[in-house]
Amino acid sequence: MTEKVTITPQAGLDANDDPITASAPFTLQGLVAPGDTNIRYGADGDLDTVMFTVYLPLKIKLRGTWVPTMTALTDNFTITIGDTVCVGRAKQWDLNGRGGVIVSAGSLSGATP
Predict the structure, then answer these.
(1) Per-residue pLDDT tens over the stretch 1-21
(2) In angstroms, rounded to a whole number, what is the distance separating the alpha carbons of residues 9 and 12?
(3) What is the pTM of this model?
(4) In the chain, where are the structural domains located?
(5) d(CA 11, CA 24)
């Protein structure tokens, strides 16, 4: 089902380990579907629960300018779906200009905005 989602870029580090400040939130229309559960491989073997899967277009209009969705999302962002704030992970697929961005959204605390 298509619904509004709010993306909030969070503070973090860039590729050179320089600090990146958090950015203003923005709202998009996305196709929201149920998530799934994946295993995150690592030393602790934690489970990574995905509550929602959100499908977005390759480019979005942000503050009057078309930008690649992956550029707007950054590496560290939260996504609010309904009243649930989730940590987002994005992956792009691009087939010669056709495709989109998949956001796996998992709530760490069930927090609400």
Answers:
(1) 789 999 999 888 776 788 888
(2) 9
(3) 0.79
(4) 2-86
(5) 11
